[in-house]
Specification:
The chain has 148 residues and is an all-alpha fold. It has seven helices and no strands. The protein has a single domain, classed as Orthogonal Bundle (Ribonuclease iii, N-terminal Endonuclease Domain, Chain A), CATH 1.10.1520.10. The N and C termini lie far apart (47 Å).
Length: 148
């Protein structure tokens, strides 16, 4: 059971004071992917804004190179060797989660791997492992960019 200090620290680790209804390990993979998608999107936007070309149309075009299912699947494959056993477990659960739909611009494999990446980001976010999350996303974005 979480004591008051642990509870306050876990809420403090989040960007906003709304903690999950369950511990991160008990949240369904698609729920973790739901928040992970949003967190990853913010990371990509912040990454792009750190660069010189700030025209909105250019930013949007560049963002799609990173947030598409195909790009997220590739990013995950580039990071696989860096993941811990626990992170691999979260990725496996995210990859095996059945969402019931596949976007028109991705195949099923890419979509499942993209969901797995989002699941991992969501898990790290809700676990308060923000430093680890930032490191993986930063390394992944840089590797993705140089692999093109």
């Amino acid at each position: 059971m979480m004591n008051e200090m642990d509870h306050n620290q876990s809420v403090e680790a989040l960007w906003f004071p709304y903690e999950a209804s369950k511990s991160p390990r008990l949240l369904p993979p698609l729920v973790l992917a739901y928040i992970g998608d949003a967190v990853f999107e913010v990371a990509v936007r912040q990454y792009l804004i750190s660069r010189p070309n700030l025209r909105p149309h250019h930013l949007h075009g560049q963002a799609t190179k990173f947030v598409s299912a195909k790009a997220q699947a590739k990013l995950l494959s580039l990071l696989e060797g860096e993941l811990t056993e626990e992170e691999h477990d979260v990725v496996r659960q995210g990859r095996n989660a059945k969402s019931g739909s596949v976007p028109k611009n991705a195949n099923v494999i890419e979509y499942r791997h993209a969901t797995a990446l989002e699941c991992l980001v969501g898990y790290l976010y809700y676990s308060g492992a923000h430093s680890r999350m930032r490191t993986l996303i930063d390394e992944g974005l840089k590797m993705l960019e140089t692999s093109e």
